[in-house]
Write a structure and sequence with these properties.
Layout (H helix, E strand, L loop, with lengths): L5 E5 L4 H12 L3 E8 L12 H15 L2 E6 L1 H17 L6 H20 L4 E3 L4 E6 L2 E6 L16 H5 L1 E2 L7 H10 L21 H6 L7 E4 L5 E5 L33 E7 L4 E6 L7 E12 L8 E6 L7 E8 L2 E11 L6 E6 L2 E11 L1
Parallel strand pairs: 1-2, 1-4, 2-3, 4-7, 8-11
Antiparallel strand pairs: 5-6, 6-17, 8-9, 10-11, 12-15, 12-17, 13-14, 13-16, 14-15, 16-17
Length: 367
């Protein structure tokens, strides 16, 4: 490492990015902090905490002894991430805006800004790792299996990976908290943020209501019986159990002690007929898929991996599932020997070869 090479760190106000900045400074880098403001609508509400987060980030910068700059990417975010998020929801799919945010904002708009500041690298508080092998940059899982965030980073390309550091990728969360306490960071015990960045902790349906028109329609079971009314297909996702409003419906003639009390799950969405299909029981066949096709593929190496045996996640926090990769029109297909639960169009299927995240695509269909 060259003495005093400049690294720009995305400081979110959270403990992970704070410890990342501290570790880089300890390693001898010239560290500059950037706080990204990505959302402006109702920013003064109880749900959107960017003002509090900036105060926390500034306090961290003060303790560590680095400069911090407040940068507004709200316009880029609305154009590149939020507009796509609404398009997908309006089409009845369930997108993952955090993946888009990483690809379009944190590792594009932010990276460009950092390069203009003369940085050689950027760094974030993600639990992931980058490894160079023969001039190729590989994205690896973070060493803390309960915190690994490579799933959200799978759209990063060679140019982005070559410029990125993940200082806490080798650490467990408990160690990150310990370091924060040890150096008296003001946010050492701050709760981890959850939920989508622009929604925060607010009720999701209430948020979507502002942007997507409600189109109520029937809720039907696998036999075609109408069980109730949905408020609009955009407001439901496959595998959803809460908020269906049909908890009191029982399978007619069910035996006592049978499946009559099993919970209902969203299993299918028929956009053309505006019908929400639900099934009873977590293990219903309609919730199981052995195959999926994905489109809009993005591969970390810049090209698709060879067809063959790999592992994949079809949602974050899922265990890796063995699969076989084959090419498919406009993307790729994955075949799973063991059925996967509630595979959801709009979510990402991410491929792994051991600890190496290869990339992935957006789930288009499953069977």
């Amino acid at each position: 490492m060259k003495t005093q090479s400049r690294v720009v760190v995305g400081l979110s106000g959270g403990v992970d990015s704070a410890v990342s900045a501290y570790l880089l400074k300890q390693q001898g880098y010239e560290v500059i902090g950037i706080f990204m403001k990505n959302w402006e609508d109702d920013d003064d509400s109880e749900f959107c905490s960017s003002n509090i987060d900036f105060v926390d980030a500034a306090s961290v910068a003060d303790v560590i002894g680095i400069e911090i700059e407040h940068v507004n990417f709200a316009a880029e975010y609305k154009d590149r991430v939020f507009a796509e998020f609404l398009r997908e929801y309006s089409a009845g799919r369930t997108p993952n805006p955090d993946i888009l945010c990483n690809a379009e904002i944190k590792f594009k708009a932010f990276l460009d800004h950092a390069m203009r500041l003369g940085a050689e690298k950027i760094a974030t508080g993600h639990y992931a790792r980058v490894r160079e092998r023969d001039g190729n940059f590989q994205l690896l899982k973070g060493l803390d299996p309960s915190k690994d965030q490579s799933y959200f980073l799978h759209r990063l390309n060679q140019a982005q990976l070559s410029k990125t550091l993940f200082p806490i990728g080798e650490l467990h969360k408990t160690e990150v908290r310990r370091i924060a306490e040890e150096i008296n960071l003001p946010n050492a015990r701050k709760k981890d943020s959850t939920g989508i960045c622009f929604i925060g902790e607010r009720p999701f349906r209430e948020f979507l209501n502002r942007y997507i028109a409600k189109e109520p329609g029937p809720i039907k079971d696998h036999k075609g019986r109408v069980l109730g009314q949905h408020v609009g297909l955009s407001f439901y996702t496959l595998g959803q159990r809460q908020g269906l409003g049909i908890g009191g419906v029982r399978e007619k003639g069910a035996q006592k002690g049978g499946n009559d009390h099993a919970p209902w799950f969203v299993a299918r969405k028929d956009i053309e007929k505006n019908t929400l299909w639900v099934v009873q029981g977590h293990d219903h066949p309609w919730l199981q898929s052995h195959r999926l096709t994905a489109q809009d593929a993005s591969w970390c190496a810049g090209h698709a991996p060879a067809p063959g045996a790999y592992a994949a996640k079809t949602r974050y926090r899922q265990q890796d599932a063995a699969c076989t990769l084959t090419a498919a029109p406009e993307g790729f297909a994955l075949q799973f020997p063991e059925a996967q639960w509630a595979v959801t169009p709009g979510q990402s299927a991410v491929l792994y070869d051991g600890d190496v995240c290869l990339g992935g695509g957006v789930i288009a269909a499953m069977e």
